[in-house]
Amino acid sequence: MTMAVPNPTPQTLDVEDDYDQLLVAEQRLKELHIQLREMRATIPNMVRPLITHHDSPVQLYQTFADAATTATREVTAFTQIMHDDQTKAVLDRAATSRKEKPGPIKPWRAAEHPDWLDLTVRDKDRSEIEMDDKSGQKDMVEEGLSGEVEQDVGTLIQTFNERHPDVKVHNSDETKIIKIEVPARIQMSFSIVPNANPRGPPTYNVSTSGTMKLHHAILRSIAARPRPHDLTELLEMLAAYHDIGTRKCDKCNLLLDSIPQFPAVRRRPRAPKPSDGGEQTWQALHERCS
Asked: Between the CA atoms of 231, 237, 241 and 246, what dihedral angle is there, to the nearest 10 degrees?
């Protein structure tokens, strides 16, 4: 006999609306806003070669061709992030909320929420959510719906530190946010935020305080990693940026592309090279070469 799947309970909805998921959604919207704001200069930058003096028609053509290629790449990158699954989920959730509550949005006022800065209240709510989340994961394991075991973050970080003593990693027990500083020619500081998932192991969202286009390209590469649940793989990927600014692209063998920009993509090769002794390393690639 086939049993009907019950509708999500209010408790489940509370778990899905927890602080970490909202933080992930906010970070994605912020990234969209930054890219959209930068695109205001796309067309002016593309036509600038046409109103600038050049020594020869060949130089004019080459400069304009490079500007057009850069503009195409910027539009393509924004289109990809605008239509990817994570952005679609955030926008669909917002659209559903507006459909269910079509009335005017009430402005948030601190005076109406006197405990908004009380961390003890927030931590209490988060503890209750985590207890419900772990209980749900336990049930799924017993039913055979989950194939992964909850990761021991402390042990993973300790093992990672032993392999990469130059990389600074700080794990906050209160906020659950992992901060990592990678020694590199360019500032590489990241924050890893666990994204609680009531139906399985958490995923991990990454942000950075860097505002260069290079940092945005790095975040796009990180967001496209194939195993978003694997914290060890994520830490290793971030550590692979230690040579950013000095390492050439493994495909075109150039340090800078036509933007110009360093190889911002880090990716595992499909198969280890015999010269690596069977150990997989990380490829460095320009976005256009990946």
From this structure: 170
